[in-house]
Amino acid sequence: MTPFLITIRSIIAKDFRLLWPIVILSAALFAITAFLRAEYMFLRIIVEQMINLASALLIVSVVQIDTPAGLSRDWLTRPIAPSTMLLAKLLFLFVTLMVPSFASHTIQVLRAGLPLEEALFAASTTLTSAMFISVFLVAVAALTTSLLQSAGVMIALALVFLGFTAMPIGPMRRVMEGSSIGSTWVPVYGITLVAFLGSLTTLLVQYVGRRTTISRTILGGTLLLVMVTPLAFGWKTVFAIQSAVAPSQSENIAFDLIAKGECSRSGFETVLEVKGLPDGWLPMIDRIQLEHVDAEGEFREVMPENRLARPSKADGTKWAVTHLWDEEDDADESNLRLLLTLLAPDESARIALDGEKHGRPGGITCTSNPDETGKLTVLACVVPGAQPAYVTAQLDVPDSDIVSSRPPDYAPHILRNAFDNNHNLLLPLPAEGANSATVTLFEAVTHLEREVEVEMPESSCGGSTPTE
Amino acid sequence: MIIETEGLTRHFGRKAAVQDVNLKVPEGAAMALVGANGAGKTTLMRMLLNILRPTQGSAHIFGKQSVELKARDFQRIGYVSENMELPVRLSVASYYDYLRPFYPDWDEDLERQMRREFDLPRKRRINRLSHGMRVKTMLASALAFRPPLLILDEPLGGLDPAIRDDVLEGLIDRATDTTILISTHELSDIEGFATHVAFMEHGVLLFADEIDRLTERIREVRAVTPAPSGRTVDMPRSWLAPNHKGRTLEFIDQEFTNEADLRERLAAAGLSVEQLEVRPLSLRETAVALMRARGKENDQ
User: Which residues of chain A make contact with B100, given a CB cutoff of 8 A?
Assistant: First the structure.
């Protein structure tokens, strides 16, 4: 074994001797989540928060034992290269946090009935995000000299960030708004990349250069950069990036949608399995249409937010109108306007149900197109110089025997747990009174659409059904 | 020279913690760096070990710039400081297990021997050791790899006399071929152990020299002249703290070799001497005299 490896092994062994209680605790928590049934949602949330706390504690503790900040740590006068120390710390965290996390996620996905290959890919995706966050925490810990100081700095940073996010007008609002159109990933990836690179630079300067003041300035600068990064992601940029990573429409593209369902404590759960999706595609849930015969009125009450959005037929992004519903079941113009301002600075969007054209010079022109057969009003909006957007809003159809609905939690979003070309989503459905559900997915850029029908159990699953 | 500094300076904000220090520690020397708390001893040592960067000047260890010291260089430097933070939740044995692989020359027999002599309990955690035991633990860890250079920052501070003797004996017995730089604020701690001494005050190195040479050539002189001559005595710079009253002149001579030579130098200064008393000084008296004299020079 080379002296370099001997040094690394010795540091890791020492850290384990010092921190084994936290290591065991976090490993136990990861094990619990791996085998916790999906329906114990509340317990899962608690355990996950405990994992977050234990992980943060472990990260800060292991770095603080041999912090490069300050002048009095024993290792500073030992034959240990700063870069070796940093590597040893990162390796320790990889072994004690990342490996259990990876195993836990793999088991979770396997227990959801998915193949090993997909489970491994899903876990590695989660692992990547965890590693990015960990590097930031390592950077904070490396700039402080005590656990208390680290905790103080982290709380302060979190408050600044949350305060900034909560600002009604600000760059972060753009990120939040993007969640309704499935483009959040672009600014989020941008922010993550900036934070990761800033943290990495901080660590290198701090460990190799041992320049605490400069390193603190770099990390502070990184935080500021993170806050203004969303400004670089206007909708044009987001759309360009989203389009760039998607395959050209001329390619022979297709994807299959498979659904499995089973009763659980929270109701009927559907695993959507999307196969054969090319890299860069963003599958999104479009709608879930529950078909039932008897309990239609009741269902309308419990699922009020039943606005649907359909994909654009032309090149363009898809805009979801999920909060248009009101007592009159008329379109909520202000909400729509707010949504459409994402497209252009002008706020002239209007909505109508009679087929007339609306618009103002330089603003957004929308055309509504009531569809009596489908009981839908299709609203097509065109923004000058931008991509056309089509928005649909459903009419109130109390007598219809088909109710289309999107459960509030499933506003269009990118399917999580993407791995390889397959995607999975656990989808709890309100099964009361429904005979079957039709789930529609679409791809965010190409707008390819697929539907799959899920048979509901004959009797109720006995789970809780959302109530108003 | 094992250690050599040139104009070494370190500022913290506007305050100079160490100012223009030129220090040379020859191979095999045991140099005591003496000064009150806040004199700049710890800062100086931290710069030597590249824990702190100098604001100005440079330090060389084994002929290499301190700011360029690499991990491998620390296999030749032992460091003990009461300010160092050890991994205190480790046991003594685990601490040595942790350190051992870093040093190719780590002598396990020596380690065991020192643990026995210092009465270090193997399984006790470092945070449950007394201050004295902790210093012994550090000292054993610094000696076990037989480093050619030992830098000891106030290792004897706060130790009771018995433990202090243990530590010093441990040093004397096992660091015979080692160059040592040891800082202390108590001169008596290292009398009989150090071969060289350097004094620091307010970040300034007042003087540094070999102890034998200091004690050999420094004398307190009391000269009585027959009658006040009336002419000004041209006192050389080597006469420190001169006090001329009436027929009596008292001073500290820094260049004493023998009485005949002293009489010649007194005569050269224009003094005929009726009575001459020469008294050797203890190291403490020498230090006090030199520090006062240098302090006065610096004030001027």
Answer: 10
